[in-house]
Amino acid sequence: MDKFLYISMTGAKEAMTSMTVRANNLANSSTTGFKSDYNQYRTMAVFGGELPSRAYAMSERPGTDTTEGSYITTGRDLDVAINGKGWFAVQTAEGKEAYTRGGDLKRSRDGIVTTSTGLPVMGNGGPIFLPEYEKLVIGTDGTISIRGLGEDPLALTQIDRLKLVNGSDGLLEKGLDGLFHLKDKNAGELDADIGVTLVSGVLEGSNVNAVGELTEMISASRLFEMNIKMMENAKSNDEAAARILQG
Q1: Is 174 helix (H, G, I), strand (E, B) or coil?
Q2: pLDDT tens for each residue of 45-85
Q3: To 10 degrees, the CA torsion angle through 217, 223, 229, 235?
């Protein structure tokens, strides 16, 4: 009887986990550059001694959907989107390098170019410092050029260049911070790739399929309810068996 109860209990727990993943995807359906997480169930054997004594349900995230989201034209100077494959390099709070597709950049009070969440964006030699300007142009190769305050209207000065990396071939994985990191923790950092290009004045939206995620949430909710009913049935069967033995 406890085997019946055990798999029902783990099934209900993992259904809740699945709903959490789906809810996070839905919550980020309008987040710039967000990549949705996959979720799947599978059965795992529990080994007691030499042979499996029972089984349990497990929910896991096999990976992340890295397909491109829809592109939105904004016309803003610091809004950029990767054209095709590639990533922006950013600096985490721990001082390490991570990667994102979110191109809604901004200039901090200290003049540092950051993401919308405040993480410094990496350039040729580290975080990019952007002085005050009258005009800013970001080229397709990531080059940042400005016309400074009071300077010649026809003159543009190159400030730095966004570090753009490829990161294909399964080199990256999504972390709990929502950023992508190298799977090999000892690999250091990715090199800049001149083959990665940008589109200026455009943002890449989330690739979340809101309707699909909502459908999966409903399915996980029903699965949770089904497992709870199975647990109640296990309890009823156990009580019935106890009465028979007492009689």
Answers
A1: strand
A2: 776 666 666 677 777 777 899 999 999 999 999 999 999 99
A3: -120
Taking the CA atoms of residue 12, residue 17, residue 19 and residue 21 in that order, the dihedral angle to the nearest 10 degrees is -160
The predicted-structure confidence for 161-176, as pLDDT tens digits, reads as follows 999 999 877 889 999 8
Strand partners for 174: 180
Contacts 24+ apart (CB under 8 A), 5-9: 5/231, 5/234, 5/235, 6/54, 6/56, 7/54, 7/55, 7/56, 7/57, 8/227, 8/228, 8/230, 8/231, 8/234, 9/227, 9/231
Is the pLDDT reported for residue 151 higher than 90?
no
Q: Which of 45, 34, 4, 9 is nearest to 179 (CA)?
A: 34
- Across the range 7-31, mean pLDDT stands at 88
In angstroms, what is the C-alpha Rg of the chain?
25
Q: Which two tokens stand for residue 11?
A: 């099934």
For 103-128, write each residue's pLDDT tens digit. 999 999 999 999 999 999 999 989 99
